[in-house]
Amino acid sequence: MEFNLSAGMFSSEEKFSPLDTAKTYDVLILGGGPAGLTAAVYCMRKGVSTGIIVKEIGGQVALTAGIENYMGYRHINGVELVDKFREQVVQFGIDYDEGASIASIEAGEVKRVKLEDGRVFSARALIVATGKSWRKLEVPGEEELTGLGVAYCTTCDGPFYTGKDVIVVGGGNSGLEAAIDLARIASSVTVVQFLDRLTGDRILIDKMKGFENVRVLYETEVTSINGSEEVESVSVRNRKNGAVDEIHAKGIFIEIGLVPNSGFAKGFLKLNEAGEIMVDCACRTSVPGIFAAGDVTDVPFKQIIIAGGEGAKAALSACNYVLQKS
Amino acid sequence: MEFNLSAGMFSSEEKFSPLDTAKTYDVLILGGGPAGLTAAVYCMRKGVSTGIIVKEIGGQVALTAGIENYMGYRHINGVELVDKFREQVVQFGIDYDEGASIASIEAGEVKRVKLEDGRVFSARALIVATGKSWRKLEVPGEEELTGLGVAYCTTCDGPFYTGKDVIVVGGGNSGLEAAIDLARIASSVTVVQFLDRLTGDRILIDKMKGFENVRVLYETEVTSINGSEEVESVSVRNRKNGAVDEIHAKGIFIEIGLVPNSGFAKGFLKLNEAGEIMVDCACRTSVPGIFAAGDVTDVPFKQIIIAGGEGAKAALSACNYVLQKS
């Protein structure tokens, strides 16, 4: 039994098998970003029966304008790279489900995954690769101009703003690191901070202040991001005196944090303070037979190639687990 | 100052800067496989001064016939993929040295790397990514037919032998895992074991014996690998009675271990029993400011995308270290 996917990115000729509620899979993968898709390729090549539950194919990668730090491509955009990853998974005719959210998971010799639409799937091993979501400003223009000047990742997108004026939103460690990274290459960096002080590490604050082309606007919030084809300016409001201003900029980096998509694992898998699933260097979680990979975990640094590597590790760990049990 | 590289794989038009013995680099990378090259891209993009010392560009990848498990390419050969990785490094005009072996490294606020030709280079942080070398049989035909039926990695090359007769050399865990992997897809698997018993884990031995298409030849050694364009047969000799035989096979997987290229680090960095450099999940070694990534480390599973991910982690850890010190 096969069906056509309706998602826009997919060609109507491509077919997957639907996930089967009656089957016990060897490995069930939760998540369709770089970690989940890499895990899928590794599991399928190992010949274990595999299913994958994807909310949004590509995860954060699909939101990235240009990628220059994924090895093998000097330059590729996020959607193109996701498409290549997906093609590699599709060729194996994997059992696939897209769109639903995970409600809860249950351990035991056979693990169960309950979706919010009520369906329940079973597997001997799970790989949780549900990623993180960027915390959004939720102001007018943000969504429309994402990838057109609105960015969330300086390591990925910073170099595109060489010699340009940019804004960084957020005065915590992510914001400071972004400002330091950008100060070396951008013409000017304006840090917009909601509070009356920076909340990041002293060492980062000092380092940032060493750059003459960085300024900080305290007690300030972004009210809208403006531009038709690309970002042209950002409107801000002083929270103390209500004064409004419009700052001309080609790029705005929103660095107000990421939210791990781990809600369904709370009280079940061991999470750190940030809500990330804790794993060892072989991607094992606190529950035997449940593995995790990529940005939803406490692995340091969030990058496509790192998530891919972690996905491969989790898959090989899960396959070893299944083979030893069978 | 720039010079042309002489290595065959390089176009004569490509230029690098030579490594400078008078300079103290921020980061010096040792090794030019997937981990080292990925680390180089990440360091250069961070804007820290970076040098790379490569013995053989591409490492084990350059020896792999076809790669189907590197995300982004459904199928690519090893040399092509190495070439793409290298291109990505070259674009930054990195300081580069190729061909020399590392004699020793020295710690301190500034780390020193001594090459066997006597040159000494300095850096604030080091990334050791010198990889592993496959242990070779060293029999006639092995070198000539590498990539043409002689293989070292079942995860990489196994699927190319679907429905064919293959030989696995080695009765330890790697050999047993290779035989189990191949038994599912190959027509027949002959395991050639030097000793009178298998030395791998019981669980793997039992699992392998469950396959009817696997046989083991004990106390047997390979004397030559035969074929003109590709592997056609393998000659073996019984070590007990001296009987010789010729086994027809399309593939021979040599699974007698890998040797980490960590000799220069002995007694200096903490190594495990296998001689691998021990690292934490952020690629830190036992010496502050020295990071390690890829197959030379104790990271589980040796795969291109895993090495790439570890290289990125090591680079970001090294950059953080350098920025905090400066």
Radius of gyration of chain A, in angstroms, nearest whole number:
21 Å
Could you name the CATH class of the largest domain in chain A?
Alpha Beta
Q: Tell me the series of helices and strands of chain A, N- to C-terminal.
A: EEEHEEEHEEEEEEHEHEHEEEEEEEH
SS field, number of helical segments of chain A:
6
Low confidence ranges of chain A:
1-13
Rounded average pLDDT of chain A: 91
Task: Please summarize the sheet with the most strands of chain A.
Answer: 9 strands, mixed
Tell me what the structure shows.
The structure is a homodimer of 326-residue chains. Chain A has helices spanning 34-46, 78-90, 154-157, 173-183, 202-209, 304-325; strands at 3-4, 15-18, 24-30, 50-54, 66-67, 76-77, 95-98, 102-106, 111-115, 120-128, 132-134, 150-151, 165-169, 188-192, 214-217, 220-226, 233-238, 244-248, 251-254, 258-260, 290-292. The first copy, chain A, folds into two domains: 16-133 and 258-325, FAD/NAD(P)-binding domain, CATH 3.50.50.60; 150-254, FAD/NAD(P)-binding domain, CATH 3.50.50. The two termini of chain A are 27 Å apart. Chain A is elongated. Chain A has 326 residues and is an alpha/beta fold. Chain A has six helices and 21 strands. The interface between A and B is large, with 50 and 49 residues.
Q: Could you give a short description of this structure?
A:
Chain A has 326 residues and is an alpha/beta fold. The first copy, chain A, has helices at residues 34-46, 78-90, 154-157, 173-183, 202-209, 304-325, and strands at 3-4, 15-18, 24-30, 50-54, 66-67, 76-77, 95-98, 102-106, 111-115, 120-128, 132-134, 150-151, 165-169, 188-192, 214-217, 220-226, 233-238, 244-248, 251-254, 258-260, 290-292.
